[in-house]
Amino acid sequence: MTNIEVEINDNYICVYERLNDDCIRLLHMYGKNPVCVVPDMLDGMRVTELAEYCFSFKSMPEKLKTELGIDDILRPDMTELCDDYIERVILPDGMQKIGRLCFYNCSRLSVLELPSDICDVDGDAFMNCTKLYMLVMRGSPKDKSCLKQILSQISTLVRVRWADSDGNATAQESEDDLLDMAFYRLIYAYELSKEARQQFLEYIVNHKKRLSELIIRKRDSGLLQSFLELKDNEENFIADVLAVTDMLALAAQDEWSEGSVILHRFKKENLSVSRKRRFEF
After folding, report:
1. Per-residue pLDDT reduced to its tens digit, 50-63
2. Strands of the chain, DSSP E
3. Average pLDDT value for residue range 166-172
4. Which residue in 48, 121, 129, 227 is a FRET match for 234, CA 20 to 30 A apart?
């Protein structure tokens, strides 16, 4: 046990480790109710990271609990904030990293509130968070944020609400946010169930025109190629002739020559009807 410490107050018990003289990594929490408010400071240091398995029972094996004397200091009205107990988590401003499998098996977690400028969200941070439906992002949707990192890991269709530093809504989730989430989960489909894939596909098909506009506006050839390669369950391209034609017009209007080349090549190779087939009787 190295550099691991415990802070106790009337509302929670926090287990943490020092990263340096100013910052700490939160390892685990105990508290009184399923709404978990992560403190911004512990022992005069900023809480900047959530450890691997932070909100999972896996973060506190029995040997470590015994060494820290958790059972002796745990009050009767407190319990571990992990797994299927927690329902909402609020992260403080200044948080910089969410560790791997941080919310593993938090099957009742429904709302996560966090600063939008978190710079690192490790893989599988939200594995088995099957009821997560709302992200409250503190910040501006116009600024660089961690939203895409998070959306690419979530297997359910979540809503996004933007808020100020006090959590007051500044903008409701938009169709664009939901489209981003659905699209990124399809192109980064690690551990995506068949049912979830179908849900995302249906959403994209119903909002295909808007998604096409967003992709062209971003002028990202990788995203464009990923969109063109998407197929439905019957192996038909999501991007049909009408969608590609509309995208070609948008790319021309935006003077994006690279996108136009990609679209023309895709249309010729995958959507054109050959002359031989056209005149078969």
Report:
1. 999 999 988 888 88
2. 4-8, 12-18, 23-31, 35-37, 41-42, 45-50, 79-80, 88-90, 97-98, 111-115, 120-121, 134-138, 159-163, 169-171
3. 56
4. 129
Q: Name the token pair of 73.
A: 């200091």
Could you write out the DSSP letters of every residue in 139-199?
Answer: S-TTS--SHHHHHTT--S--EEEEE-TTS-EEE---HHHHHHHHHHHHHT-TT--HHHHHH
Distance of CA 252 to the CA centre of its chain: 33
Over the stretch 90-136, which tens digit does the pLDDT of each residue have? 999 999 999 999 999 999 999 999 999 999 999 899 999 989 988 98
In angstroms, the CA 116 to CA 139 distance is 5
